[in-house]
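Trying the structure run again after the queue cleared.
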Amino acid sequence: MPSVSGMAVSALLVSLQRLDWTDLATHLVTKDELRAAGWSEAKIKLHLGEPKGRHPSTHFRNPLCQPYWTGQQVLAAAVRAGLLPSDVKQWPYSRPVHGLTHDGQFLLGYSEGGILVMHPGLESALLTLLKAKRELVDKCNLYPQLGQRNMLANPEQTFGEMMVKVFSLKERAFPPTIPAEECIDKVLWMNGTPQSQREEIEAFAHEQRLLAELQCLSGAEDVIEALAEDIATKEHRYEELGTSVLAELCGIEPADGDASRTTYAYWLDLDSFDQHHETMAEMEPYLNPTRWKRFERWIERIEDGELEFDDIKLFPREIEIIELLLNQDGCGDRAYRAVCHHSLTDRKGRQVCFQFEVGDGGEIEDESGPYDFNEPDGVNCDEDEITHPKTGNRLVDLLWKPRKPKAKQ
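Done. Tokens:
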């Protein structure tokens, strides 16, 4: 039988080591079995909890009210107790599978195939989040408004309640093979991979810390000035918070009727239309007579099925004309987006701009600014003649004009 520091490994530990790590999560070991394997009361109390109470690693009890633990917890405790080497079987970690405790009230695990596990990276992210919460709650002493504005800083919301609300955790008894009424605690479960959840938790902690900097300011004017300064210095510290969050801090209603509104329609690409010969028939005013005669022959051949539009070699100007003709037809009927522009000015006269595209139902379909301010990908249908979104030309700008003859010398 193998040994550690001259001490023989018990048959119980040997049998547990033969099981897969995931199978150990549902394999239960009672205190009597531990005693028979040579565990003293002091060792059980130190590494697995009070016999009549419970340890953070003990989620459940048996009908005789005797604590029992999963095989994972027993093996992890054996490593801590020096009964097994720390590198045995290259286990994911040598700690109890109980998650992060907060005042004895919060337990968190990650669900993988019905098994509860706690990845070291996930635990590290939770500790980062817990530290961020404590920092922001302390800030509420100086900035009382922060507790109402920041989700992480709310002093009345426990860490566990906040986690359930933000990350949609589910509360279930563990392990599933044990009747729920026999469990001391229900465990919070997360879905997804440890890496994705770790990244999400750490990103949330960073976002709330950054957001708190602006939420501690007294009002919208101070936020506008902070953004204007951030843009002017090109530090862009608050860019990752997103347009809608920053707009709300600046006191903006995205679909505010007082904003500059322009009706836009989606731009139709040539690939979404197959009756190009009908549009080509409207091109006579934009072509010289010789070129128009060639177009007439192309139109006739397309109608007879002898030629495809994609086989014709057109000049960029001619393609632009076709695109404008295609999009001008029925443009007003397709226009169901309003583009709302908001331009704010700070105390130094610097501007902070936002733009929102509002759909027919009042929903925000797209947004930009104040760091990335992009024109909407569409056409303005309020004017008599639309402009091409790439060139800015109107159809009237592309009319064919005969060259004036040169003056005789």
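The radius of gyration is 34 Å. Worth checking whether this holds up in the mutant runs.
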